[in-house]
Amino acid sequence: MTFDKKENCGLFGIFGDPDAVQKTYLGLYSLQHRGQESAGIASSDGEYIQCYKGMGTVRRVFRDGSDTLEKLANPVSIGHVRYSTTGASNSVNSQPLLSEYSRGQVAVAHNGNLINAALLRDEYEAYGSIFKSTGDTEVITHLLAKPSHVSKPDPLAHVLNHLQGSYCLLFLYSDHIEAARDPYGIRPLCIGQTESGAYVVTSETCALDAIGAKFIREVEPGEIIRLDKDGMHSRFFVKPGFVKPAHCIFEQIYFAKQNSTIFGENVHELRKKFGKQLAIEHPVEADVVIPIPDSGTSAAIGYAEQSKIPFDMGMVRSHYIGRTFISPNQKLRELQVGLKLAIVKEVVAGKRVVVVDDSIVRGTTTRGKIKAIREAGAKEVHMRISCPPIRFPCFYGVDFPTKEELLANNRDLKQIAEFLGVDSVGYISLEGLLSCATFPADHYCTACWCGKYRIPVDIALNKFSLEHYQSDLFDDLAESDG
Could you tell me where the DSSP H helices lie in 127-245? Predict the structure, then answer.
């Protein structure tokens, strides 16, 4: 999928391992698909937290040959890779956010989107709080530092009950890590353990595989996990089952890596199910099924298996170009698409081609790829999409365009086909999509398709709702950051 959508972030934390920082680096590297805007690692020796972060990919921030990781070396560590859904793309918004308050130091890493961040920030600024960033995460540190919150029996649980929206959070204190997941379980978060017995908390199981750790379980919605010298401890800041889960199934459609297991299912196998269901709902006579790699590949395999149409790789992806939706502007995204995906003419020339992708948002880059397939000699092109038409924005951590910019918002299937330049287009139905998943249908968030938001959104926030400065200042900051 190549479209103007940016997603949440990737988290990794480990306690009690002599190589914690090196393993955090590897874990973040495996989570790079969740954000290429900035990366950071904070670590503690048991008394003092130090942090290093910057703009760019994990490899760029922690450059080969530098001694940054050695300087950070400690047995406790958390890390973060980011693409912004609230706040500009600049160094002041990179994470983890390291702060100091009456209880000492704390570093915070966040995946998700707080829909009440602007209201909370206005309240705290009115009472004199000074904010250094323009993302939603810093609000949490001000909540933690409020004297009336610090005095509570469980300050963190009290603070979490003030938050609305989606969040998976890692808190690094000098002598322990705390991890939390919102009561709806919108974003994934899981627990693992290394061979040496060190516990790990991370966004996806692919990060556990990267360091040779075993998967234990997912962090439950509304649960807080504490990692310290005595092991792992669990408590809940809301009663288990207080609300029905609202897992973001888009994680399984697109965001997560194929070898990850999230929401109880392997991503690759579930995407194949989506493809098979898509073939049942939208069959077509064709000669070859090709995916738009990489996120459309698993669904295309499923479509080919169900339809008995041969599968082939009609597009070749350059792995030297990152996920194009993470690029900072539309012009660069469009240029990158041409570099990233090249057509294999011999696969499509003179054939009726089924093109399978996971989703379409604006449709501009998809239209360019369809044009390239036709120019390569395809006789017919039939577009098949393994998620329903996206008609509504997301306020829970996916930076979709506005409703007016969404391709499917005011177009029927015929109009969408005309816009894309294809002979036919077919989307999997919402019912068909949910029938493939393990949990009951009402355990998933489907707001971007049906407009029914599980967590009420009173104010239509956008990515720059918390910006107080001119964008050219942030451009200067971004350009000056390593």
Answer: 138-145, 147-150, 155-160, 205-210
**244 Cβ contact list (under 8 Å, min separation 6):** 184, 442, 443, 454
Question: Rounded to an integer, what distance in angstroms lies between the CA atom of residue 176 and that of residue 456?
Answer: 34
d(CA 152, CA 227): 21
> Which single residue is written with the structure tokens 């989307």?
427
Coil, strand or helix at 146: coil
Give exposure, 165-176, as e/b (b: 16+ Cβ within 10 Å).
Answer: bbbbbbbbbbeb
Structure tokens at 308: 């008995």
**Sign of the four-CA dihedral 396, 401, 404, 409:** negative
Specify whether the CB–CB gap between 49 and 150 falls below 8 A: no
325 and 224 both lie in a single domain: no
Let me know whether 317 and 443 are in one domain.
Answer: yes
Backbone φ and ψ of 430, nearest 5°? -60, -40
181 and 96 share a domain?
A: yes
Strand pairing partners for 165?
114
Rounded Cα distance, 388 and 218, in Å = 27
Q: Which residue range forms the structural domain that includes residue 104?
A: 10-243
Tens of pLDDT, residue by residue over 315-344, are 998 766 655 544 555 555 555 666 678 999
Q: Quick check: 180 and 218 in contact, CB under 8 A?
A: no
CA distance 111 to 181: 10
CB 27 within 8 A of CB 211: yes
Question: Catalytic pick from 9, 190, 206, 445?
Answer: 9
Tokens read off for 458:
């009173």
Task: For residues 350 and 290, state if they share a domain.
Answer: yes
Distances in Å between the Cα of 258 and the Cα atoms of 30, 66, 343, 457 are 12, 31, 23, 31
**pTM of the prediction?**
0.89
Tokens of 286: 């064709």
Q: Is 173 a member of any domain? A: yes
Look at residues 251, 252, 248, 246 and name the one whose alpha carbon lies nearest to residue 275: 252
By CB atoms closer than 10 A (0-12, 13-18, 19+), residue 319 is exposed
Domain contains 60: yes
Reply yes or no on whether 9 is catalytic: yes
Give the residues of the chain that fall short of pLDDT 70. 1-8, 65, 84-90, 319-339, 399, 401, 458-482
363 within a domain of the structure (yes/no): yes
Strands 49-55 and 177-181: unpaired
Q: What is the largest CA-CA distance in the chain?
A: 72
